[in-house]
Amino acid sequence: MKIFQSLQRKRQQEQEQEGDRLSNLPDDIIDRVLYFLDAVSAVQTSVLSKRFIYLWTSLPVLKFHDPLLFHSFVDHFLSLRDASTNVHALNFTCHDELDDDGHVVDSIIDYVTLTPTISTSIQILSILTECVVEKLPQLSICQSLTTLKFADISTETPTTFDFVSLERLCLFDCRFECGEEEELDLFRGCVSLRCLFLHDCQYYGRFRRFKIFAPHLVDFSIKGMRVDEVFGSDCVVELFAAKLQSFSYRDTDLYDFFIELNLSFLERVDIAMDYLAADAGFSLP
Predict the structure, then answer these.
(1) 40 in a domain, yes or no?
(2) How many beta carbons lie within 10 A of that of residue 167, not counting itself?
(3) How far is residue 274 from each of residues 193, 224, 246, 248, 253, measured CA to CA in Å?
């Protein structure tokens, strides 16, 4: 019995020493380690030592990647987080379709936009999941955003992107309700936009002109654009980008373009008309 108790004490001392070593790590190393962890793993570090108990509540980068925990974990995590601390980046990724009609995504948008320390400091927001997002326009409050990335989201009401500080916007496989206007001007509020990627997005509406006015745009890529789920042969893409350096277009059909730019800035043009056929496993004649 004494031997067993002695072994227990020794083991406890070793654990305490291990905890002390973790607690004595410099702040920059701990911050660097936590930076690479998703939200679940970050919470689990609270058992490592006393110093780690509440560190996860003030992380400046939030990553939600575990679909099994989305329904209960995300709301609970956000409710316990220290709302007085900034969030510079938030990434939400779920490769399965959410069965809560986008409630989790809308709750994240609520948290980001209704928490003053975050709405004024967040710079990067990435939401990659298949769902309908009702509160997307609410994000316009976050004028500190510089990078925005969406994949597989849908909107059911007309939406525009109005972010004066936004420099990079990536939209992949998204579906947007665009209303009854003849001119679609989704990005009119993004006056600082430098990179714009529109890949395999669908736009629903009666517009005949797709206007992109971006005076600082340097990199533009458009692929597989569809209007009401088909190639919009009577739709004209109007691009006003005086400083454009790179232009990429990939599709099986070619939209009419009206482009206003300064050719002295243009460095790269990539136009491919067979990417859909290649993806489908056959070649164009």
Answers:
(1) no
(2) 19
(3) 29, 11, 20, 13, 9
CA distances from residue 142 to 101, 108, 137, 171, 223 in whole angstroms, order as listed: 23, 13, 10, 18, 28
Sign for the CA dihedral angle at 121, 123, 125, 126 comes to negative
- Count the domains in the chain: 1
And the tokens for 150?
């969406």
Please give the Cα distance from 105 to 100 (Å, whole number).
10
Rounded average pLDDT over 162-187: 94
Is residue 168 within 8 Å of residue 148, measured between CB atoms?
yes
pLDDT tens-digit map of 52-109 = 888 899 999 999 986 655 667 888 899 999 999 999 999 999 876 666 556 889 999 9
Torsion of CA 84, 85, 88, 90, to 10 degrees: -80
Asked if residue 260 is part of any domain, the answer here is yes
Q: What are phi and psi of 106, to 5 degrees?
A: -65, -35
Range of the domain at 219: 157-276
Contact, 132 vs 160, CB < 8 A? no
Condensed to tens digits (0 to 9), the pLDDT of residues 239-285 reads: 999 999 999 999 988 889 999 989 899 999 999 987 544 443 333 33
Size of the chain, expressed as the number of residues it contains? 285
Which helix (H) or strand (E) segment holds residue 176: the answer is: strand 175-179
Residue 123's CB: how many other CB atoms inside 10 A? 18
d(CA 172, CA 152): 6
Domain presence at residue 215: yes
Q: What are phi and psi of 220, to 5 degrees?
A: -130, 125
Structure-block tokens of residue 105: 């995504």
Please give the Cα distance from 212 to 199 (Å, whole number): 15
Give domain status of residue 198, yes or no.
yes
Tell me the pTM. Answer: 0.84
Q: 157 near 177, Cβ under 8 Å?
A: yes
